[in-house]
């Protein structure tokens, strides 16, 4: 029995999130079904991030144990061949038995894509949030600077899933724009349910002039869900990268083409 780590990507449009749910298609179910078929016995996978329904991933990482005598490259090809076309497998590597895709992660990076143009982009529309409202980019960046650090993010969590301890650490948060396209990236050790999408919804209100930065400061101290911005659509959110030290990947892991995006 060997423990493996796999670097995968998926289009979340057809899935009800990563985590297995009875009677609903999920990424975890698809992976476990394919691996169990190859293993000729049940295989359970652990994911680095439990993405919600409709959320995508370019850099999800999973770990699992199985018997496989043909080498990791053959396992990668066999696994991908038995998955739906909405899931891709970049690399599969053997790892130490103590490696856990979720617990061993140092941080997770999420990316959210916003289109500010008047026209639609038919080829990308399903993976963007179309938002044509005028924004003050300086205020948007000031908001992202404000959320960095260790804060109480109770106001930025789906109310039904609010834990006893909602303090989380944002390592970095930044905004990049090329023409009408905006990419927001947020790095943190862990995230609450819907946290990134509520952060983006609140940033939208600040950038559009409907909420002040001092209000955000109060939200990060003692805010409730009702006081924060809306939860923006899931289709524009990607689990972009998961960081480990040392990195388990032998082929560089993340494809160089990602630097273009």
Automatic annotation (TrEMBL):
Record's catalysed reaction(s): uridine(38/39/40) in tRNA = pseudouridine(38/39/40) in tRNA
Family note: Belongs to the tRNA pseudouridine synthase TruA family.
Task performed by this protein: Formation of pseudouridine at positions 38, 39 and 40 in the anticodon stem and loop of transfer RNAs.
Keywords: Isomerase, tRNA processing
Name of the protein in its database record: tRNA pseudouridine synthase A
Active site per UniProt: 52
Enzyme Commission designation: 5.4.99.12
Pseudouridine synthase I TruA alpha/beta domain sequence ranges: 6-99, 148-245
Pfam family, one: PseudoU_synth_1
Subunit structure: Homodimer.
Top-rank taxon: Bacteria
Gene3D superfamilies noted in UniProt: Pseudouridine synthase I, catalytic domain, C-terminal subdomain, Pseudouridine synthase I, catalytic domain, N-terminal subdomain
Source taxonomy: Bacteria, Thermotogati, Synergistota, Synergistia, Synergistales
Annotated binding of substrate, by residue: 110
SUPFAM superfamilies listed in its UniProt record: Pseudouridine synthase
Gene: truA
């Amino acid at each position: 029995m060997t423990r493996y780590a796999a670097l995968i990507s998926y289009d979340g449009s057809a899935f009800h999130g990563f985590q297995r749910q009875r009677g609903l298609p999920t990424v975890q179910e698809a992976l476990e079904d394919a691996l169990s078929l190859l293993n000729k016995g049940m295989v359970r996978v652990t994911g680095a991030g439990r993405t919600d329904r409709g959320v995508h991933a370019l850099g999800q990482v999973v770990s699992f144990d199985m018997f496989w005598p043909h080498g990791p490259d053959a396992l990668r090809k066999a696994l991908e061949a038995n998955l739906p076309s909405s899931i891709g497998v970049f690399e599969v590597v053997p790892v130490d038995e103590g490696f856990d895709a979720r617990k061993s992660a140092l941080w997770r990076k999420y990316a959210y894509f916003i289109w500010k143009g008047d026209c639609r982009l038919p080829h990308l529309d399903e993976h963007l949030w179309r938002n044509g409202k005028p924004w003050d980019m300086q205020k948007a960046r000031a908001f992202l600077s404000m959320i960095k650090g260790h804060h109480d993010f109770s106001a930025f969590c789906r109310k039904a899933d609010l834990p006893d301890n909602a303090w989380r650490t944002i390592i970095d948060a930044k905004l990049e724009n090329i023409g009408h396209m905006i990419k927001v990236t947020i790095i943190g050790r862990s995230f609450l349910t819907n946290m990134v999408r509520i952060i983006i919804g609140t940033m939208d209100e600040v950038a559009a002039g409907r909420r002040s930065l001092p209000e955000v400061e109060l939200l990060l101290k003692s805010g409730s869900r009702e006081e924060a911005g809306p939860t923006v659509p899931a289709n524009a959110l990607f689990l972009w990268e998961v960081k480990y030290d040392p990195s388990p990947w032998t082929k560089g892991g993340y494809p160089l083409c990602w630097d273009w995006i």
